[in-house]
Known about the structure:
Layout: H1 33-57, H2 61-71, H3 87-94, H4 99-105, H5 110-116, H6 119-130, E1 135-137, H7 146-154, E2 164-167, H8 171-176, H9 183-201, H10 211-218, H11 222-233, E3 238-243, H12 255-261, E4 267-273, E5 283-288, E6 292-299, H13 304-307, H14 312-317, E7 322-323, E8 333-334, E9 339-342, E10 347-348, H15 350-358, E11 363-370, H16 377-381, H17 383-400, E12 413-419, H18 429-435, E13 446-452, H19 459-467
Parallel strand pairs: 3-6, 3-11, 11-12, 12-13
Antiparallel strand pairs: 1-13, 2-9, 4-5, 5-6, 7-10, 8-9
Amino acid sequence: MTTNCTTMHEVESSTSGLHQANFDPDNPLQYSYKQVQSSESTVVSVFTNLSRRWRNITCTSKTIENTHTCVDGGGHDEGICLNNLPLYCKLVILSHLNVTDICNLSTANQHWYDICSDKFLWRELLCRDSVGWNNICHKSNPLLRDQEMLELYCNQPIEGNGNTIVSTISISERLRCRGPIDYKELYIQCAQQKYFNTRLIGIKPSTTSTIGEIERRNEYSFPRFLRSIWVAVRPGNGQVIMFGPGMESKNTSTIFMCLLRGRPDLFEIRRLLPGGQEGVGSGVELEFKGEKRFNLVALYSNNWMARRNLTGMERLLNSRMLDNSSATDAMGTQMNGSFVGISRQFTLSVAVLNFLRRMPDNRQIIYVVDATKGQEMLDISYNRLELQALLQGIREVERGSVNGNETPYIAPVLVICCCANADAGRIPCVEIASYLDLAAITDRPWFAQDVNVNNLEGLEIGLTWLFKH
């Protein structure tokens, strides 16, 4: 793989990026730290002068009247005038508003419409708001694949040689360096898709405070009883495969037991499912909200003694789910300051492949990730190799089950980003999507959802999306 890449200038992630140094539409990827620092000093100086002038003019009511007239567009040049601020100062102010306020301001006149449509403003809004989204899908993902990011950095096509490309740059820099695109259009596209997902799922945030209240409310639920009878006589259960590092992490390993016992309003255990001769496939049959029955199969990388305290590549190398016989000894090659090339390749073990072939076609995938802050980014990124191995095995099974010109069943993927203690900090789901390179999954729908392990908040939204796909 070619590694002679032109390294971009370092960007200070703490700055908003809305400065005169950034206003070059023909070359939006180049930054200068000195220019940014100079522009920041200019902004501070401007606002300092404005503050001093304001203190001086508040002495007389006549000056105040002229100031109000100026703000309203009266044409006066004296006093503080919002319209007379430099463009980058206006953009800095707008970058602290929410999108609704900016859209309302854009209806004032043509001048403010042009300012509120500035692509650099919407770039910063996307950087600011995307980390606060509690879910993201294949249509609302604003990030590029790591392979495309590498080509953008190198400014030339990169021929793959089997290596897995892992980007180490931050989310804000990934969004700022997407090239000459319309960030307003990208933001609106993501927001519209999130709205469509909300309407599709149709779930409002729960206001129930305790599990006891949930049990008392559902204890004599007659409509739920009728739905259970209808679900019982309806043939065919969905097959859900649940696996991932979040089921084995010390922070979120209780997710499976909480799913079985923590929310009786959502899940009801029907029966246990025995495993196959090779020890793969054990699980439980659950009823979801009295409307959907599915077989939940849990796949662990190894037994508890062998997998405890293992993370990153070490966990994958000791996994019984994966065959690493073709893997090389190289852990990763530093390509430049922002990318790492991983030469290891994993495939599913024979036991897991045989289990997938015995499953019916109506299968779904749940991948569990520990989203607790404080983890190494590369340790999370290595898990994409496990997800890629499972998806490759799923594709082989899907192609093998097609007869003639039939369209194969495409299994959707739900990624749940688990966090047990919100006070300890959570990695945003958009960052998890970038670490796992979910943008590279283009042949099937996927959905990443934040989930609280203790009360399973957010899991209902993810499962509803999964069963509707």
